[in-house]
Amino acid sequence: MTLCILLAVDGSEGSLHAVRRLLRLRERLGGLELHLLTVLAPAESGHVRWFVDHAQLEDYYRDKGLAALQQARALLDAAGQGYTPHIAVGLAAATIAHYAGQVAADLVLMGSHGHGGIGRALLGSVTAEVIALSPVPVTVVSHD
Predict the structure, then answer these.
(1) What value does the mean pLDDT take over residues 57-79?
(2) The pLDDT of residue 144
(3) In angstroms, how far apart are the furthest CA atoms of the chain?
(4) What is the pLDDT of residue 85?
(5) With 90 as the cut, is the pLDDT of residue 1 above it?
(6) DSSP of 29-78, one letter per residue?
(7) Which of 14, 39, 80, 141 could be stapled to 18 by a disulfide with Cβ–Cβ 3.0 to 4.6 Å?
(8) How far is CA 28 from CA 23, 61, 108, in A?
(9) pLDDT band at 137 (very low <50, low <70, confident <90, very high)
(10) What does the pLDDT look like over 12-25, one tens digit per residue?
(11) How far apart are the C-alpha atoms of 34 and 81, rounded to whole Å?
(12) What is the rounded distance in angstroms from the CA atom of residue 28 to the CA atom of residue 73?
């Protein structure tokens, strides 16, 4: 049986910890179909379109997304773990939950805290919202 996991990363140490934990557990999981997702906040407003054309905005999102995925991809590549990378633009929690359904994930895996403002006492706000919105179970990897 192949387990489909959506691994949400943002380049933070918390998300990289989730990648490392997955790599340690993967032999116990058997077959693994892995989708690696990063979600970027929309940079466009009506005013941005006056100064930046669509192609420039797409390049910006691609570059930012690749940068956010870079360290996670390096860890997965070094371990020989296959994956399908995804870069999305939108509200993080809703987009992660949407992708979980779109790729028919069995599980969403993510760090407890990512990049963000002031640290949260228990869970990052995006993580808590993904738990509420996801159509599949969410496994949260805490920072050690």
Answers:
(1) 94
(2) 60
(3) 52
(4) 98
(5) no
(6) H-EEEEEEEEEEPP---TTHHHHS-HHHHHHHHHHHHHHHHHHHHHHHHH
(7) 141
(8) 10, 35, 17
(9) very high
(10) 898 999 999 999 99
(11) 8
(12) 21
With CA atoms as reference, report the closest residue to 84 among 103, 67, 101: 103
CA atoms within 13 A on the CB side of 13: 2
**Which CATH code, of 3.40.50.720, 3.40.1010.10, 3.20.20.105, 3.40.50.620, is assigned to 2-141?**
3.40.50.620
Cβ–Cβ < 8 Å for 22, 7? yes
Q: How far apart are CA 65 and CA 73, in angstroms?
A: 12
Q: State the helix-helix crossing angle for 13-29 and 54-78, rounded to 10 degrees.
A: 50
Domain boundaries, the chain: 2-141
100 within 8 A of 135, measured Cβ to Cβ = yes
Residue holding tokens 């992660």? 96
- Hey, CA dihedral for 99, 136, 80, 115, is it positive or negative? positive
